[in-house]
Amino acid sequence: MADEKAPPKVCASCKQNIEGGPAIIALEKAYHPEHFTCHECKVPITGSKFQEKDNEPYCDNCYAAKFLTKCKACGDPIKDKVVTAMGADWHEDHFVCGGCKAKLIGTKFMEIENAPYCQKCYTEKYADKCKACGKPIVTQAVVALDAKWHQLCFKCSKCGKPIMKDQSFRTEGGKPQCVKC
């Protein structure tokens, strides 16, 4: 009986027989080692690690640049965990407060001018300030006399008692007064 040999493998790239040397088998195709290249940059893929998209091989760098989502902060592809916030994607280490740079993963934050801020920085830099005490207002404010006030800071200028939201008041010299005074 004659010695039967398997038919030679044909390189998927150059369409020539692969003889006398090793063949790379990938994506259910055979290649000469020098012809197994990245679909994008055409550089030979060496080693066993490559990415695949639409049955085409890509080196890690080209795959990342072409197909991975980009970080809003740095513009680089995100290869590990993606944080999605404020309509954008971020590297986990780049989703930080625009003020103190603290990581914001799992915390409450406020968006100011397309940047995230932790509650502390938001309060210190952007929260409305009370007309009476000058401190940030982080709860519901009383809006009166073209200003914002803490509920307990909105007081009668004569007796010093807080004017509650359901009470009437008048003004004297631009300052609030309860109707009793």
Textual characterization of the structure:
By secondary structure, this protein is mainly β. It is 8% helix and 25% strand. It has two helices and 14 strands, in the order ββββββαββββαββββ. It has helices spanning 60-67, 119-125, and strands spanning 9-10, 17-18, 24-26, 29-31, 51-53, 56-58, 82-85, 88-91, 109-112, 115-118, 142-144, 147-149, 169-172, 175-178. The strands form seven sheets. The protein has a two-stranded antiparallel ribbon. The chain has a two-stranded antiparallel ribbon with strand order 3-4. A hairpin with a 2-residue loop joins strand 3 (24-26) and strand 4 (29-31). The chain is rod-shaped. The mean pLDDT is 90.
Compose a concise summary of this entry.
Helix content is 8%, strand content 25%.
Query: Residue share in helices?
Result: under 10%
State mean pLDDT (0 to 100 scale).
90
Supply the number of helical segments: 2
What spatial form do the alpha-carbon principal axes imply?
Answer: rod-shaped
Question: Quaternary state, please?
Answer: single chain
